[in-house]
Amino acid sequence: MRFAKLVDCLARLEKTTKRLEMTAALAELFKGASEEDIAPIIYLTQERLGPAFAPIDFGIGDALAAQALAKASGKTIDAIKKQYKTKGDYGTVAENLLKQNDGSKLTVKKVYDQLMQIATTSGEGTVEKKTDLLADLLNKLSGAEARYLLRIPLGRLRLGIGDPTVMESLSWSKTGDKSLRAPIERAYNVCSDLGEVARIFKADGVDALEKIQVKVGNPVRMALAERAKSSEDVVTRLGKCAIEPKYDGLRAQIHKDGDRVRIYSRNLEETTEMFPDIAEGVRKQFKAKTAILEGEALAVDTETGDYLPFQMTTQRKRKHGIAESQAKLPLKLLAFDLLYADGKDVTRVGYQERHALLDKLIARGETLEVAEQLVTQDAKLIEKFFMEKIEHGLEGIMAKRLDSPYQAGARNFNWMKLKRSYQGHLTDTVDGVVVGYLRGRGMRARFGIGALLVALYDDQQDKFVTVAKIGTGFSDEEWPQMRALLDKIALDHPHARVEAVMEPDVWVEPKYVIEMQADEITRSPIHTAGKIDDEPGYALRFPRVKGFIRADKKPEDATTVAEILRMFKKQGSQRTENE
Ligand code: AMP
Question: Rg of the chain's alpha carbons, rounded to an integer?
């Protein structure tokens, strides 16, 4: 196909915002394309040289465009820049400068190949070479062609052709309607490459798309979850199902091919470089030679081993200083699904079986763990699991249909998410009494103290009831000081006025008051503040200590249960819906 034909279509698309007209124009273009042209056409209309997951940078910015235009038109850079200032777009400048050029005979393939050559030029004198190649290309094009050509690498087409429009147009190009959209979409969900899907569709027809299978190295568009209203809702829809914690981190799809490991984010961007610890963990701990697995990447507190909040995990999503941030915030991968292993596509195998296979393939180690699971159809047990997870600072739970296949790119009731539906923000601080401490893991094990068990005062019953396990806020100097003070008041049993479900390593007399800041108050079955019979108590979410000991306060001056209940209610009235 001539490049001019693609340009005609782009000009048509530019004039409309109506989806149906866009679909018709694209369908016509696709109809006229050969097997060889179709993928380049799709990539170029989406301002790319390949699928989104394997970005090939054009390496053409404004400066290079200006230089190439100067070269192609014989004008000075200053003159080009002046025109750009008035027109605001190098495409229009190019059209104006090259309007006397004849229409070209270049094919789409030739233009694509030359852009690819520009993109892959490297080494000494790169800028020179790229400029020459672009100027040469521009000189072979008519003004209108140059206008659109230049807009492609500069990301200035502004046509809004999304994947759904391309898929629908492909269907229209064969049948005049959208009836083939579903098989096209299935194929796309599995391989994430619309150019490749279109090529197969063009060459061998819709039935050939069936044969597209998951492949190591091609990210698979990820399965998503529907919302659940409650534990009962989960049981009604799924019956006996697998319940897992909903870890609050970053979705990772991992492709392993021997020692080559690639990691993709939820939107299929490659993030391997950012997470070398996960890649290394997979190399060390994953027993299959080739595999595609999924899980949630989560930052952990090196001292307590606790999962850290999402905001901390996202700090790992940066391109610089990776080694330092890796040391400060190591990641764990909580694996939950397996799509492919040792040459076998297992996406059609039921979830429970995939999960079991996954479990078998993970060797013990520091980085990879299989997601915890509870298989049940008892709404009460689901509720209990949910409460426990919330208490541990997680977002909620995921419920999965036991016999469900992995449905790439689909959001349906095979997976359901049940989240804490509201999120508040606690501005008040809370004063608590230390009633025990935990020894802690990792770095903090050397202090022999890693977290405090803290209680509120129940003035009705004159008791101390726990509200938080707190491991953040003290410095490396303060932890040993705290331990020395607490060891002096240690007990070998809980103090008679202390009521707790959680067991610390060392109980202490309720004596020292500390001030805490938290994100919000949540309900929790493992804390006793406000707990009545089987009902859960109240707890602080993401608590951290402010200052050291409040020497001015007695234990009975700590925040009371009645106050926490008022704060919880107030928080409720200020809540905004999370999603
Ligand atoms: P949402 O982003 O709220 O739609 O919830 C879905 C996301 O939860 C997934 O994309 C994962 O990143 C995350 N997630 C956390 N834990 C799990 C789990 N056990 N199974 C599946 N997804 C999980």
Answer: 30
